[in-house]
Amino acid sequence: MSYFRGREDVYPIRWTNKQGKSGYSPVCANEWTSVCEKPRVKCSVCKHQKFMPLTKRSAVSPFRCKAGQNDWHISNAAR
Fold this sequence. Notes:
- By secondary structure, the protein is mostly beta strands.
- It has a domain at 12-63.
- 6% of the residues lie in helices and 13% in strands.
- The chain has one helix spanning 56-60; strands at residues 12-16, 22-26.
- A hairpin with a 5-residue loop joins strand 1 and strand 2.
């Protein structure tokens, strides 16, 4: 993807917790599945890491317009 520089083997997703704290984490195909050990094991040391690569779809998907609306929005649909 010529518009992006840097890593193409992984991309981030924004999160917000119940206390209002927010941040970015790499998108992992195994997050919250049966092999995921969150919150006991941090993603950075997890032996089941399966980070998702940056694709055209994952880059464009968060900016898609909802059907029937003219306004653009940001969503977590890129996962």
